[in-house]
Amino acid sequence: MLPEEPAILAVRHAVRAWTQRRPGPVAVALSGGADSLALTAAAVAEVPQVVALVVDHGLQAGSADVAARAAQQATTFGCIDAIVQTVTVGTAGGMEAAARRARYAALEQARGDLPVLIAHTLDDQAETVLLGLSRGSGPRSIAGMSPWDEPWGRPLLDIRRSVTRQACVELGVIPFEDPHNSDATFSRVRLRHEVLPLLEDVLGGGVAQALGRTAAQVREDSQVLDALAVELLDSASVGDELTVTALTGVPPALRRRTLRAWLLRRGAKDMSDRQLRLVDDLVGDWRGQGGVAVSGAPAGARLVVGRRHGRLATELEWSLRTGSTENP
After folding, report:
1. Distance of CA 136 to the CA centre of its chain
2. CA nearest to 298, candidates 261, 268, 323, 259
3. Which of 92-106, 158-172, 268-282 has the highest mean pLDDT?
4. Residue 136 neighbours by CB distance under 10 Å
5. Cα separation, 122 vs 99, whole angstroms
6. Contacts of 66 (CB under 8 A, 6+ apart)
7. Residue range 47-52: average pLDDT?
8. Within a 13 Å sphere around the CA of 63, how many CA atoms are in the beta-carbon half?
9. SS3 letters across the chain
10. Can you tell me the distance from the alpha carbon of 264 to that of 33, in angstroms, rounded to the nearest whole number?
11. What angle do CA 57, 99, 199 make, to 5 degrees?
12. What is the pLDDT of residue 48?
């Protein structure tokens, strides 16, 4: 039985609201930190069967012991199983991004068919929105994290980090303090310890909540536009190509979403806003310009979007060494 105290009750209520929409057994991503410990305890209280998934990144001395303690705490809470996975973190994109990729790959492998609850809080959401604003990549970059992005669930997006820490006090458990969370070489850490506190001070508080509300509003609007874009894509598609006339009179915001959805189907990845706008110019500002290269091609090739005979099409242009061109 968990204590009937304010912080752990707030976490339980958040988990209860999430699981009422998606009932059934769950897995919980457990790091041993305050957020994930509070989430795991609340999940055990609210869900009939909970499996804890612990990822040991191997980035610090003693990380195996930290993972083992987290797994032991999970079974003490009442999880039916606690699975520890050790991963190798690469270097592509920096340590933070590489660790994230390794972690999610391990969780995906271990979860079976269970949804995985992740302990992202309102503070994490606020940091994510600010990072998105700094990239300037449009609404998608400031929509933040979704409460449900299959198979990942985030029940605590309305819960402050201070609440999960207090919940651990009420539970009588001591969370692991990851030294990376105080390493100022990471942008997110500086946002957490410098930028957000300053914004709270200058603007009189409530900044994290305001950023969270903004993310939710943008995400709701984006879902409507994305649905309209899918309908437009279906009507404009002729095989693997797009009919330009079906897109010409469409508002640019909707047209770019449609083009983005089409490009993702054609193999594009991690497109920049500039790339997408150049592709949009093939419809909205057509001057006979040449093709546009977008991200996502395999090594030694370029994925190029071109306009011909009133249609947009993609093709792979290989380097001179291969001398081949093909439609992806």
Report:
1. 17
2. 268
3. 158-172
4. 9
5. 22
6. 32, 56, 60, 176
7. 96
8. 17
9. CCCCCHHHHHHHHHHHHHHHHCCCCEEEECCCCHHHHHHHHHHHHHCCCEEEEEEECCCCCCHHHHHHHHHHHHHHHCCCEEEEEECCCCCCCCHHHHHHHHHHHHHHHHCCCCCEECCCCHHHHHHHHHHHHHHCCCHHHHCCCCCEECCEECCCCCCCHHHHHHHHHHHCCCCCCCHHHHCCCCHHHHHHHHHHHHHHHHHCCCHHHHHHHHHHHHHHHHHHHHHHHHHHHHHHEECCEEECHHHHCCCHHHHHHHHHHHHHHCCCCCCCHHHHHHHHHHHHCCCCCCCEEECCCCCCEEEEEEEECCEEEEEEEECCCCCCEECC
10. 36
11. 120
12. 92
The string of pLDDT tens digits covering residues 130-175 is: 998 887 767 888 899 999 999 999 999 999 999 999 999 999 999 9
Average pLDDT over residues 72-95: 91
User: Look-up: residue for tokens 């009588």?
Assistant: 172
Q: How many residues does the chain have?
A: 328
Least confident of 130-134, 206-210, 303-307: 130-134
Identify whether 151 is preceded by a cis peptide bond (ω within 30 of 0): yes
What type of residue sits at position 81?
Answer: D
Burial (CB < 10 A; 0-12, 13-18, 19+), residue 39, is: buried
Give the chain's end-to-end CA distance (angstroms, integer). Answer: 57
Amino acid identity of 139? P
Task: Single out the residue of 10, 35, 39 nearest to residue 26, CA to CA.
Answer: 39
CB of 250 within 8 A of CB of 258?
yes
Q: Which residues of 255-292 are buried (b: 16+ CB within 10 A; e: fewer)?
A: bbbbbbbbbeebebeebeeebbbbbbebbbeeeeeebb
